[in-house]
Request: fold
Amino acid sequence: MGHKFAEIAFTKTVREQQQVLGSRSGYAAMDEGADYNHILRNSEAAFISARNSFYMASVSETDWPYIQHRGGPVGFMRVLDEKTIGFADFSGNRQYVSTGNFKNNDKVALFFMDYANKTRLKLLGRVRQLEESETELLAALEDDSYRARVERGFIITVEAFDWNCPKFIPALYSEAQVEQVMGSLQVENAALKKAQQSSAPILPSELGDGPLPLVISAIAQQAPNIRSYQLRHKDGLELPQVLAGSHIRVPLVLANGQRSVRDYTISSNPEQRHYYEIAVQREAHGEGGSQAVHQLYNLGLVINCSNPLNEFQLDTTAPAAVLIAGGIGITPIKAMASALAAKSIGLHVHYAGRNLQSMAFVEKLQYQFGDQLSLYSSEAGERLNIVNILRSAPVEAIFYVCGPQRLIDAVAQIADELSIDLKRIRYERFNRD
Reply:
């Protein structure tokens, strides 16, 4: 049938409502092809294993649904194989509503939430309570480091799952996640204070002698070592029109006092001209440019820049585009995706990084592009499958790649092996500084 979640959840009445309310055409493709979304991949397994709670729905003998929140240590929902998950049931309020419902009806629905990254995974399955004689399975579900008493174990056979739309999920962060972000900022802050105490540097109020006077109007910490800077015209004027993929040369002063410049991609939506946005990844072992930006670029600083240039041009006449970003290479890809979406051109963004916490703009991209965005965390064992990405792309699609040289080389090599015209591959690599 195709998408197994749609097969189960999209009943005749649901499909009729989708048709009446105008969304049916958007889901029609889920009925096509071989069965999928019923076998857990590395991405689902990693997501489930990283959760410390979930919501679980059962159905009572009176046909009333019952929803329960279950919590425990991270990973207490075990992924046993590609079709099976299970959890130890810790002692709670002792109402046993879910436990009783499962005796009569083994159907279960689960919601796994990642509030920090505004992501949720829905899962449908069939559940059974383990017998006392199933000691090996019970042992596999226990966590010796967690002191709560285990009353029973449940095994769930996966029937279907679906990654759901991120809209309206509140961004909530655990104490550990806040400490992770704040830790690097505190270390950097301590280092800056120490440097200030030893040399008492005076931060500049203006840098550069370029023709375009910009003022830093906002700064955001997009990841532990990535900051975005919003740049507006010093006199409140509209900024020069730019195309997606453009970059701007900004002035700075290196640690040795040498005045220099660096090029940074404009990542903001090119459709608006109120401000430019650049994102700078702080490189500890670079040539000092990114460190200077992080140290010197403060609110109110005026930077006299050169006018933007574009050497990574977007083709808005092609019917479709596939955009591939590695790490901080997301900056031009973000702007390009916004420009393509504004013209209703078919697109899909593939964005890879070490982990979601280290990847800039994840929440904005999820909100804006939803199912048109695929994220890959190398720490979770997820890798860009370039062969599949290129093979499954629309015939006339243009490919845009930005990231480290090895990513660009891999895309070009595989495109050549698949006899894809290399004129359809457009790229820009980033320099570590």
Observations:
- The mean pLDDT is 91.
